[in-house]
Amino acid sequence: MALHLTELTLSHFRSHKRVRLPLDRRPVVLFGNNGAGKTNIIEAVSLLSPGRGLRRASAEEMTRRPEALGWKIRGGLVSLGQGHEIETWSEGGQARQVRIDGKTASQTALGRIARVLWLVPAMDRLWIEAADGRRRFLDRMVLSFDPGHADAALAYDKAMRDRNRLIRDEIRDPAWFAALEAQMAEAGHRIHAGRQQALDLVQAAQERAETAFPVARLQLVQSEGEMPEGEDALREALARSRSRDMAAGRALVGPHRTDLQGTYAAKGVDARECSTGEQKALLVSLILANARALADRIGAPPLLLLDEVSAHLDMHRRAALYDEICALGAQAWMTGTGAELFAELGDRARAFDVSEAAGESAVAERELG
């Protein structure tokens, strides 16, 4: 059975004082003027998965003003044939909390039942921005297959921060370095292996599919040299790099130096050199391939959050995207300024008109067509 939300309720979240959406398995269309609060709704859905959501905002930034009472999101989720009630909230700007089926839970636990992928306008610059944006994109992809990837990333970052502190304080005790490098090597190897596996799965899903979107060839590259293969090799590389790291003031070896390189396969052109429309099409292709690979691996496609997805897509590719989403059986949440952008979906989707007046938001169900 497809993974989908059966209802979504927001309380004092961003611009929405209270909103409740009744849902079924079909894709969801949110249309309305810019600034009406469409993206706020899909941001709320993104918070039903681990992490800081599609805007990477703090808990305090997401609270509705001027009340600043804190916020709460509740969703009914069907995952692999089982129903769950998910609640996540923040009070007074504190770190968000999670409850699954009435019991306190970790964000990692969220990732085991709610797989969520997103594509937002800020990601349109993915191929031409700095490498850290591509690493975040890649790690969200890995997280969709392996919720434990978040734990490895946290462990690696903590050990690296502690090692960088030794470097800044000019502490040269080899025993301290060795202990932290062992932690970095263990977590770093897991991170690198997870990234490579995710790329292999997505690449295979792209090549098997008949799609209107271009195939992107993907590979991991290092800013300097090669990423050491294996935990022992990474630990040894970190030890050898201590003097260089002392001079640089930071670690120069490890998965934090990895970049994601994409190529438009049919043309043999680096993604960063493609047109704006081609770059958008490559991103859509990757999101769809990620969803297909997940459907093959866990038995259901993830929730897809596609903000302003029609931007830079012509009518042919827009219609093809809707057909592929429906064929996949994914509950995709899509936003746009007008209902006409989604007319090809007809009754295959549920549509909601999102509006705002005098500081109050309103959401009303409409028909497409």
Brief sketch in words of this structure:
The chain has 369 residues and is an alpha/beta fold. The chain has helices spanning 38-46, 107-113, 131-145, 149-168, 174-208, 231-240, 242-248, 276-298, 315-328; strands at 4-13, 16-22, 28-31, 71-79, 82-90, 97-100, 103-104, 116-119, 216-222, 258-264, 269-270, 303-306, 332-336, 350-357, 360-366.
Topology:
Layout: E1 4-13, E2 16-22, E3 28-31, H1 38-46, E4 71-79, E5 82-90, E6 97-100, E7 103-104, H2 107-113, E8 116-119, H3 131-145, H4 149-168, H5 174-208, E9 216-222, H6 231-240, H7 242-248, E10 258-264, E11 269-270, H8 276-298, E12 303-306, H9 315-328, E13 332-336, E14 350-357, E15 360-366
Parallel strand pairs: 3-13, 3-14, 8-12, 12-13
Antiparallel strand pairs: 1-2, 1-4, 4-5, 5-6, 6-7, 9-10, 10-11, 14-15
Helix pairs in contact: 3-5, 4-5, 5-6, 5-8, 8-9
Overview of this structure, please?
- It is a single chain.
- With 369 residues, this protein is an alpha/beta fold.
- It has two domains: 1-115 and 302-369, Rossmann fold (3-Layer(aba) Sandwich), CATH 3.40.50.300; 128-298, Up-down Bundle (Glutathione S-transferase Yfyf (Class Pi), Chain A, domain 2), CATH 1.20.1050.90.
- It is built from nine helices and 15 strands.
- The protein has helices spanning 38-46, 107-113, 131-145, 149-168, 174-208, 231-240, 242-248, 276-298, 315-328; strands spanning 4-13, 16-22, 28-31, 71-79, 82-90, 97-100, 103-104, 116-119, 216-222, 258-264, 269-270, 303-306, 332-336, 350-357, 360-366.
- It has a six-stranded antiparallel β-sheet, with helices on one face. Strands 8-12-13-3-14-15 form a six-stranded mixed β-sheet, sandwiched between helices.
- The mean pLDDT is 93.
